[in-house]
Amino acid sequence: MSAQQRSALFIDGANLYAATKALGFDIDYRRLLKEFQARDNLIRAFYYTAMVEDQEYSSIRPLIDWLDYNGYRVVTKPAKEFTDSAGRRKIKGNMDIELAIDALELAPRIDHMVLFSGDGDFRSLVEAMQRRGVRVTVVSTIQTQPAMIADDLRRQADEFVDLVHLIPRVGRDPGERGVRSQGDGPPRGPRDLPRDVADRAARPNPGLETRYGIRQGDDAPDQ
């Protein structure tokens, strides 16, 4: 892509975490940022998540703090707890409105929006951004059962990129130490993936080579 193209990343934290967990790997957010900085003139990288504020310790807090100091604009709000009709404790924390407002406000300043989410509720936002002349790439996966991306969102996007094909570029090295992605469990990378998913991750993707200049044999960015 042209270095003059202005772009912004919009990461739906909960949705991306669910997708990477289903695929069995962790995102290295330093590598993710470098990857897209190398492809476009990246002017913003937003990360959205709701947080339960009354917890003594939140497993996502170290990640949020790290992102905030390392090139991401973190947007959070308190998650709401409620009890459903069956007496079960539920937590609700939807960040769709915050993400949509930021994207529409930034639309006059960018040429390309990269949305990390498979939530079908974003289809109308993608359409609105396109009406403003912004090209939209959606990043999620169809390699899970069921797929993590809504079909109408995938159809609306100018381009769909499957997370599986980004694993060699933005996945965490199993031996690496440092900030981890949202959630518990040991860091995982392409070598730890189920065989069928690992095979797909290693398979060349012509669309990525065209759009992002990614070749599966390239060395990963420095940590």
Automatic annotation (TrEMBL):
Domain of life: Bacteria
Annotated Pfam families: NYN
Positions of region (Disordered): 171-223
Record-given protein name: NYN domain-containing protein
Compositionally biased region (Basic and acidic residues): 189-202
Species: Methylobacterium marchantiae
Ranges of residues in domain NYN: 6-163
InterPro entries tied to this protein: LabA, NYN
